[in-house]
Every structure is written in structure tokens, then in C-alpha cells.
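Quick start: what a row looks like.
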Amino acid sequence: MIGLLDRLARPFLRALDPEDAHGVAIKMLKFAPLPPAPRDDKRLALRVFGLNFPNPVGIAAGFDKNAEVPDALLRLGFGFVEVGTITPLPQPGNPRPRLFRLDADHGVINRLGFNSQGADAALKRLVARAAAGGIVGINVGANKDSADRVADYVQLIERFAAVASYVTVNISSPNTPGLRNLQQASVLDDLLARVVDARERVAPNAGPTPVLLKIAPDLSLGDLDDVVGIARSRRDDGMIVGNTTVARPPSLLETEIAKEAGGLSGRPLFPLANRMLAETYVRVEDVFPLIGAGGIDSGATALAKIRAGASLVQVYSGLVFSGLGLIAAIKNALLEALGDDGQDSLKEFIGADAAAVTAEPWPK
């Protein structure tokens, strides 16, 4: 059923405007009669952030922005789903067009700007599916016109902790003016202190809720030192490395589309995102786990993320060009690597190449 859905839908979706195609994909997942996901090989299972993941392959925030289809995504075979970015109040995001495919580069540029139906709509859906099981993380962000963006994050932690497997604090989107300023040391320290305090305040009723920090791949290494140090000192549970990049690699073929403002994702992001992942891993020193995102479009790139320091990986743009078969391809590649290496768990691969990656020339 999943393979048939993919084969039928992909040519149609690729013919549409990218944002229209995304809307159609959400509607299809709402109504498609998907079977339960097949049971994963136990060698792919990992315990991360105190949660039991059946496999390490997740879908990143940005696809299911309003928590409309998390259970359908789990049935596709993802080990976990991250919904959002959810903002406290509804907001339309930036004017269209705001999503662009770079077909020759297998890349995507977006400047969506946290378009969101708001917390009330998402919370209602998540409460309704709370007993369904599966790992569903919630990515939260501040409203564009908020007078107190830190207060937005605190409010969202308080509201969603009870229905979230984990909560990701997204301060790394390049499409909300000033948002990345929250990565500056003095501001970030206050943000994480207040967010973690909110998590602890609601824990007696909500239970333990891991709080993750999603960072940009465009940080300088000095800024990364500060971010990791603060995350460690404020008892952050993990980090996602990373979001889209505002850089434009000189190797891009779609030079006209590349001039569009916004964050670049997909295959061209992989070298930078993987380097920043490895740099983060060596600084974290196993204090907390990492999720690797950015440029994964094959089993080989997923395995490279794990070997660079990721305990889990997230895909999104790769699905645009590789289809739903990418999920199984990644899991099969990981199992093959385990067999070739004589290992029973992916744990042995995590960070195995991090030092070597950080010694390479900086990606262009």
C-alpha cells in the first residue's frame, strides 16, 4: 500500500507548486488506508532521552506543522515524528511564493516563517491521539510579533509537556527576523533556564518531558562553544543539529533559484550540517545525545550522520526527491552496516568518525 501510494502520488505532486504539493500530501495522509508499520528489526532499537525508539529514523519538523498526521507518519515506518513548528497564536507566515525546489541539486529553499494554526489547534489534535502510542515530539517557536519571545517558549512548554514525547525549542529558523539572536549566549542562557524551569514546574502532572535545542548550522565555532556550554549547564536533554542554512554553496547548479531568500535544505546542506554535527558531538562529550538532520537522502548519508555523532536522524527534503522508499532504504543500509561490522546495536557507530570529520577541511 505504501509503495503504491508513493508511485502514484510522486509524479502528481512534483508537477504542483511545492507548497500546494505539501498540502495535498497532508490531505492524502489523512485519508489513506495505511496498514500498521511492520515491526522493526530489534537491532535498530535505541533508548535515547529516556525514550525507546523502534528505529532511529524520524521525520523532521516542518512537514506536519499542525500535528494533523503524526500517526499516519508513524505507520509509514518512521521511528519517531516531530510536529511543528507550533507557535502560541496562529500566524500566516511569509507571503507566497515561499518554497522552492532546486531539482538539479536535490535541494529546497524555504522562507515559510513559522506559518502555524497556533497552539490551540495543535493541542486539541495531540490530546485526541494521546493514547495512540509512538514517539511524537513537538517543535515550538515564538510568534513573529511577540513582545516576549522567551515567554512564548515557556508558555508552549507548559501547554504541551503532557502530550509530547519531547519538546524541541526551535531558535534556529532563518525566516523569522531576529529569531537566531536567541542563540547568543546571554539570551540563550536565560531562555534555557526559564524553559527547563517550566518543564520541572509541570512535571508532577505532565511527567518527565525531554527538552531539546535545535540550532543552526551557520554558527561560528566560538558561538557553538557557548551554545553547547549553556545547554550542558542548563541540563538540556539533547540537541538537533541542525536547521537550514542561509549559505549558498558555490557548487549549486540552480543558480537563479538559489538567489531566493530563505533557508537551504536537502543534499547541498549535508557537508555543512554533518561538520557541525561532529563539532557539536566532540563538545558535548556524551553529556546528552544528538539528533542529526540536514541533507540525508540515502542510507549512506544517514549512516554518516550516526558516525559523526547522531544517536537519531531526521529526514524531510530527501523525501521530496527519493520518495517514501527512503525510509526503508535507510533502515536496510543500517542493518547491512551492522552485519558487515558484526555489531548488534547502532550504539557502536555513534560518533565513531566525529574526530576525523572535524579534522577535514571546512566544507565549501
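That is the whole record. Residues 185-206 form the longest helix (22 residues). The mean pLDDT is 92.
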